[in-house]
Design a protein that fits this description.
The chain has about 300 residues and is mostly helical. It is about 70% helix and about 0% strand. A hairpin with a 7-residue loop joins strand 1 and strand 2. Helix 3 (about 60-95) runs antiparallel to helix 10 (about 210-225), helix 3 crosses helix 12 and helix 4 (about 100-110) packs across helix 7. The two termini are about 30 Å apart.
């Protein structure tokens, strides 16, 4: 082994040790645990594929399908709102001259608040009796629109998504702003000299040139969406109420592992089976994302 390779190994070893300890080992342990029934104490009982059968087709099948469909809906709506609004706000912030720093700060400010704190703030603001949202609607003459935002099964999931968008939008504005600033100004000036309207500049120049950013953020959003837990837990608790209308795979995993499915059962093996299924859904997109990043770095 050459000296150079030894140095490389020496530098990589700490990161590799941490990765194996905190990523590889927990995953392998969870995978093995998914074949057992274990309440968290005492001996484990090997049950083979029974946990997966229970989650997919058995007593927890309806819970799993409901949570999975909510994750899909969550991803679609969050992608449209966060990427669409993020792109348009980034164009606005790049275009304005006065107050740019102020608006950038205001857009990005919610992103530095922890998700649990965001959940607490909005659970207070959306309270049907004392919440600020319904009071403002009433004072401006729109009291007919006042709703129990987190208590109505038809509104609860959309409300959770809206809070999620409010909190994360600044990140996407920041990424799109960086992407837009990379576009040569000469290209835009030439388009305006040729008589192009703002709509054509956006649709024919800005959007196509930022499309790789859209692709990367969409894949990341898919991965993050199927790992969402904190905002749902903060707003609706582990039961993902009302009537499981905000249930996602993250809260389902919590209930199956730590109890809360209407019985005293707490089964880490069942929770591990849910975690493995989430991994099976997310892993292909993660590989696609890694491939795209690697291809761009090679072409750079």
């Amino acid at each position: 082994m050459s000296i150079k390779k030894k140095y490389i190994l020496l530098f990589v070893l700490p990161a590799l040790t941490l990765y194996v300890t905190f990523v590889i080992y927990p995953f392998i342990y969870s995978f093995i645990l998914s074949f057992y029934r274990w309440p968290g104490a005492g001996a484990r009982t090997f049950v083979g594929l029974q946990n997966f059968k229970d989650v997919l087709f058995g007593s927890f099948g309806s819970e799993f399908r409901n949570a999975f469909l909510h994750n899909i809906y969550y991803f679609i709506l969050v992608t449209i709102l966060e990427l669409g609004l993020g792109f348009l706000l980034a164009i606005f912030l790049v275009s304005i001259v006065k107050g740019k720093r102020f608006f950038q700060m205001m857009v990005y400010l919610p992103n530095i608040i922890s998700m649990i704190l965001v959940g607490f703030i909005w659970s207070m603001m959306l309270n049907p009796q004392i919440g600020l949202v319904n009071q403002v609607l009433t004072h401006i003459g729109l009291g007919v629109l006042a709703r129990p935002w987190l208590g109505d099964p038809n509104l609860a999931l959309n409300t959770v998504i809206a809070v999620n968008v409010w909190r994360n939008l600044g990140f996407y504005v920041l990424v799109f702003t960086a992407s837009l600033l990379d576009i040569p100004r000469e290209l835009l000036e030439a388009a305006y000299i040729d008589g192009a309207s703002n709509f054509k500049v956006i649709t024919k120049i800005l959007f196509p040139l930022t499309l790789p950013t859209f692709q990367t953020l969409s894949i990341l959003l898919f991965i993050w969406t199927f790992n969402v837990f904190d905002i749902v837990y903060a707003l609706e608790g582990a039961q993902a109420g009302p009537f499981r209308s905000t249930d996602v795979l993250g809260t389902l995993f919590y209930r199956t592992a730590f109890g809360g499915l209407g019985s005293s059962r707490a089964d880490f093996g069942l929770g591990a089976a849910v975690a493995v299924l989430i991994f099976v859904v997310v892993m292909p997109l993660s590989l696609v994302y890694a491939y795209i990043v690697d291809r761009r770095s090679r072409n750079a």
